Amino acid sequence: MESNVKKPGLLTGVGVGILLSLPLVGLFSAVNALFGLPLVPSDLMDTLPNVLPVELLNFGKEQMVNLLTTLNLARLDVAAKPAELIIGTFTLIALCAVAIGAAYFFARRSANPTAGQNFSLGAGLALGGVMALIHAALPAVQFSRTGGLLFYDTAFILLAFGAFGYAAGWVHSRLTAINAVQVTPVAAAGEVSAQQLDRRQFLVRVGGSAAVLTVAGAVVGLSGTPTEEAVVELPDVDPNAAAAEVEESVAQVVAATYDPNFEAAAGTRDEYTPLAEHYRIDIVQNPPEIDGVAWRLPITGLVANPVEWTLDDLREMPSVSQIITMSCISNPVGGPLISTTKWTGVPMSYILEQVQPSPDAVALKITCADGFDEYVRLDLLNSESRIMLAYAWDDRPLLQKHGFPVRIHIPDLYGMKQPKWITNFEFVSEWDEGYWVRRGWSAVASVQHTAVIDTIATTESYEVDGKRFVPIGGMAYAGARGISKVEVRIGDQGEWQEATLKEPLSDRTWFLWRYDWEYVAGAQRFYVRCIDGTGVEQIERSTPVRPDGATGYHQKFQIV
Question: Under a CB-based contact definition with an 8 Å cutoff, are residues 458 and 524 in contact?
Fold first, then answer.
């Protein structure tokens, strides 16, 4: 009856691993949305930057940015998180395929009739063990999910991968049984027994079941909307008079700096970024969850007075507030990774007075809950009075996704030098490379000044003395150096024409500009450039974002 039984091999195992990994991903998505348990593809994506070679990591990031910018499906920072999750998902699928492929490969060479089930279950549990270790090693997990929570995380991961391995073993045994059956003529009834189901039909049914489970998990995962972060009122404090004078509301600052002769061209960005629209670039998929009541900031190392402050301690210290523009070093010319909001916090000069760094101290090492670290030279802390340890944006506590409970602001530097979710300050005897510097980015990260065309408002054109004019508008930014001039050019051979500037909201924000162009019909290319407050002209040569930030003139092509 039974001839040589052909067991499924490597390629079949790879296919089964891919099929069964899909409902596994759906399960992780659903359980994460419902109960907050680990989303393993997210864990993988958070781990890859720490294990990949630097050049491969940067190449991958640059290609992803280029693709997302070309597709323009959403704002770059908004699209980046789903894109990263997709990369993590495909990585998990590949690992599942390799694990089950290897299990089927070795089972085929074993005389043990249960080798397929045993090897598959073992492969699933082994992969689950690796994923559990990866999850537990993530800094954000170590910070927020200790004890019982981490036990539940580990148990869930092992159970999920164990079920995955068991299912792969069951498929192996069914395929082996199908191969062992010799198809014989069937009685007049014409029925075919379940054991005579051929491999293709069986795998189609497995695939169909996997698809149903995957879709169900994805639907649950997508329907699990994030809980809105509670808006906590800051306590009423009475800092010294000088700080009180600086601490104005946004409305007061806007009113005080409003230039009644400037009218932004229609389509120009908001001068003050709504908090919900402020850009966010992180090294993790999910922001660390920090208990503001339990959080402490230890300041240790080479200091005369080591301290450990609570968030309430910081809020009771002298404070300063300033409307500030921050830009990401990975922002391409004209890109969206730049925003403006009001920052409130404790001047670092006050903190230095309290802890008294020793003469041997050279730098401040900042450690964060997401695994990020950065070094700030002590001479910069001593010379730059505007550096602050911020605990509020837009007159309310930092949102979780924007760095709660505290983050640092350093004028004139890109966001990569201004870490969030800070958990530790340590004064050290040597400066060292921070997280992104170790990965090939600028050690200085000084903001490159740039001007951007937001709009060519053809629908807002107007006539004066028989001539038609079209408003063009946008913003220019040079960190705390300010902007002295913005110029617009139409065509490659045109003359640079000076634009009108709006007085900025503060000395650390972008400037809005407007130029009224005398209309000429046809295809036109518009260029813009700026000169910073020190008289240095914007760099014309186009360079990529890495390592020092993108340079080059922004341009728009439009048929008008």
Answer: no
Q: CB count, 10 Å around CB of 462?
A: 11
- Residue ranges of the domains in the chain? 10-223, 241-428, 450-559
Report how far Cα 516 is from the mean position of its chain's Cα atoms: 37
Q: Reduce the DSSP state of residue 253 to 3 states and report it.
A: helix
Contacts of 516 (CB under 8 A, 6+ apart): 469, 470, 471, 472
Angle at which helices 148-180 and 115-137 cross, to 10°: 160
Residue with tokens 């001068």: 271
CA angle 68, 69, 74 (to 5 degrees): 70
Q: What is the rounded CA–CA span in Å between residue 69 and residue 66? A: 5
Residue 57 has pLDDT above 90, yes or no: no
Cα(157)–Cα(40) distance, integer angstroms? 8
The encoded tokens of residue 173 equal: 């045994």
Residue with tokens 């200085």: 444
Report the CATH architecture of 450-559.
Sandwich (2.60)
> What 3-state DSSP class applies to 554?
strand
Residues 6+ apart with CB under 8 A from 157: 38, 40, 128, 131, 132, 135
Name the β-bridge partners of 287: none
Length, in residues, of the chain:
560
Compute the C-alpha angle 110/101/173, nearest 5°. Answer: 55
Write the single-letter amino acid at 386: R
Which DSSP state fits 387? Answer: -
Q: Does 241-428 match 450-559 in CATH topology?
A: no
Segment (H or E) for 511: strand 511-518
CA dist 486 and 533 (Å) reads: 11
One-letter amino acid at 385 equals: S
Instruction: Check: CB of residue 490 under 8 Å from CB of residue 560.
Output: no
Question: In the structure encoding, which two tokens stand for residue 440, read together?
Answer: 């090939």
Angular region, 287: left φ>0, alpha ψ -120 to 50, beta rest: beta
pTM listed for this prediction: 0.83
**Closest Cα to residue 348, out of 390, 313, 307?**
390
Q: How far apart are CA 469 and CA 455, in angstroms?
A: 14
Half-sphere exposure of residue 64, counting CA atoms within 13 Å on the CB side?
Answer: 19
Residue 543's SS3 state is strand
Q: What is the mean pLDDT of the chain?
A: 87
pLDDT digit string, tens, across residues 321-357:
999 999 999 999 999 999 999 999 999 999 999 999 9
Question: Could you say which architecture CATH assigns to the domain 241-428?
Answer: Alpha-Beta Complex (3.90)
Report residue 129: phi and psi, to 5°: -60, -40
Residue 233's pLDDT band, with cuts at 50, 70 and 90, is low
Side-chain-facing half-sphere of 208: CA atoms under 13 Å: 6
